[in-house]
Design goal:
Layout lengths: L5 E4 L5 E5 L4 H13 L1 E7 L5 H12 L3 E6 L2 E7 L9 E2 L4 H11 L5 E5 L2 H4 L4 H10 L2 E5 L3 E7 L3 E7 L5 H11 L2 E9 L6 H8 L5 E7 L2 E8 L9 E3 L4 H13 L4 E8 L6 H8 L3 E10 L2 E9 L7 E2 L11 H10 L1 E7 L11 H11 L3 E5 L2 E7 L8 E2 L5 H13 L4 E3 L12 H8 L2 E4 L1
Parallel strand pairs: 2-15, 3-14, 6-7, 10-11, 18-19, 22-23
Antiparallel strand pairs: 1-23, 1-24, 3-5, 4-5, 7-9, 8-9, 11-13, 12-13, 15-17, 16-17, 19-21, 20-21
Helix pairs in contact: 1-2, 1-3, 1-7, 3-6, 5-6, 8-10, 8-12, 10-11, 10-12
This protein binds shikimate-3-phosphate.
Length: about 450
């Protein structure tokens, strides 16, 4: 990790065609399901970011044989289950990694101890441990189930579980534990969240029954995994990550004269809330060449410089863009009028408190922001904000990338601390942005 900061100075027009890095959510899941399955899983387009590499090492510790065969190409030999690891599992910065792995590990009669970096050790794990404990797993950890903690699994009971928060990580942990639970599991979602685990379980041969039931004016998604599912290795083609594609695309919307295409972006509607919102703000965003790859819709997205206006983002859209609010807030800082983002309390328990850090970063750059307990409002003037600040990221990759994009179109350069953390989700970010014309240098 570099100790120097990274500075983004105002740039000329950004132009070019780039590929989105592999989707982080799908990359984690390909490693975990590959290790749980019997036989060979091959992966192409894997995101080789620090988070996913930590998950790959964890899967080796649980007994899978994993090899890199080329750039983005990996081979996993699964044993049809996990073996007890002989050392502590370090999941680095990855909430998705540790929560899904704990769910998967709970199905086996063994102990595993988990830890992570300072950010991960501060994040709530009770949301996963509560349902796992109801299924029969036991654990010992720090206050409120914070890492490091030791989990003991095996002999799980089935569970019918209504998610208390919109979290695909919690849903996935219960489903993965459910693979080895008597009677199977059912998860009920009051708000639908990303469905990559369900889709990938099916690709590995499991039966997953999904049904939307309407009660009053609400739709509840019921996801049922019957008892006794067997996973068999398969091929996974990882589509481009919409959460990463967001950065070059928003940069193109903000820097005058820009025209940028990101190819191969996953268009799963449970992930594309940002693009819908940007279009409502007046963004010139065109989706083309839509096709299906490995069960996910994929397309190319072209963004051209646009005059944006503020909007009210419907709170029910939050699960489809929960990681994209920091970069949306940057776009909102250039838009004319208020952009209201509410119902996003979950942002406070991500890699950092993203409501606070986005508000602080934007304020330091001269933007008007009002912070609320579960949301924030950004008011833009329709002109580039001042910039000229060094933004504190608390090691949060998305806070860093969002403010670097701001620096490309602001009046004065913006710097961020801890840019090394960008490699958790988007290792090629700086080179990709420089290739489009961005002016990034060590600060
Ligand atoms: C993810 C789910 C989301 C998201 C995270 C990836 C996943 O977290 O913020 O970056 O891959 O399931 P929550 O499930 O906690 O909302």
């Amino acid at each position: 990790m570099s100790s120097a900061g990274l500075k983004s100075a105002p740039a000329g027009a950004l132009r070019g065609i780039v590929r989105a890095p592999g989707d982080k959510s799908i990359s984690h899941r390909s490693m975990i399901l590959g290790a749980l399955a019997s036989g060979t899983t091959t992966v192409e387009g894997l995101l080789e970011g620090d988070d996913v590499l930590a998950t790959a090492r964890a899967m080796q510790a649980f007994g899978a044989r994993i090899e890199q065969e080329g750039v983005g190409r990996w081979r996993i030999e699964g044993n049809g289950g996990f073996q007890e690891p002989s050392d502590v599992i370090d999941c680095g910065n990855a909430g998705t990694g540790v929560r899904l792995i704990m769910g998967a590990a709970a199905g086996f009669a063994m102990c595993a101890t988990f830890t992570g970096d300072a950010s991960l050790r501060g994040r709530p794990m009770g949301r996963v441990l509560d349902p796992l404990a109801r299924m029969g797993a036991t654990w010992l950890g720090r206050d409120k189930g914070r890492l490091p903690l030791t989990l003991k699994g095996g002999a799980l009971r089935g569970l019918n579980y209504t998610l208390p928060m919109a979290s695909a990580q919690v849903k996935s942990a219960v489903l993965l534990a459910g693979l080895h639970a008597e009677g199977g599991v059912e998860v009920i979602e009051p708000e639908a969240t990303r469905d990559h685990t369900e889709r990938m379980l099916r690709a590995f041969g499991a039966e997953v029954i999904v049904e939307d039931r309407i009660v009053g004016d609400k739709t509840f998604r019921h996801i049922r995994l019957p008892e006794g599912q067997k996973l068999t290795g398969t091929h996974v083609a990882v589509p481009g990550d919409p959460s990463s594609a967001a950065f070059p695309l928003v940069a193109a919307l903000l820097v005058p004269g820009s025209d940028v295409t990101v190819e191969g972006v996953m268009l799963n509607e449970l992930r594309t809330g940002l693009f819908t919102t940007l279009q409502e703000m007046g963004a010139d965003l065109v989706i083309s060449n839509v096709r299906v790859a490995s069960g996910e819709e994929v397309g190319d997205i072209t963004a051209r410089y646009s005059k944006l206006k503020g909007v009210v983002v419907p709170p029910e859209r939050a699960p489809a863009m929960i990681d994209e609010y920091p970069i949306l807030a940057v776009a909102a800082a250039f838009a004319e009028g208020e952009t209201v983002m509410r119902g996003v309390g979950e942002m406070r328990v991500k890699e950092s408190d993203r409501i606070a850090l986005t508000a602080n970063g934007l304020k330091a750059c001269g933007v008007q922001v009002v912070e609320e307990p579960e949301g924030f409002i950004v008011t833009g003037t329709g002109q580039p904000p001042k910039g000229g600040a060094t933004v504190v990221t608390h090691g949060d990759h998305r806070i860093a990338m969002s403010h670097l994009i701001l620096g490309m179109a602001a009046q004065e350069a913006v710097s961020v601390d801890e840019p090394g953390m960008i490699a958790t989700s988007f290792p090629g970010f700086s080179d990709l942005m420089r290739g489009l014309g961005a002016n990034l240098s060590e600060a």
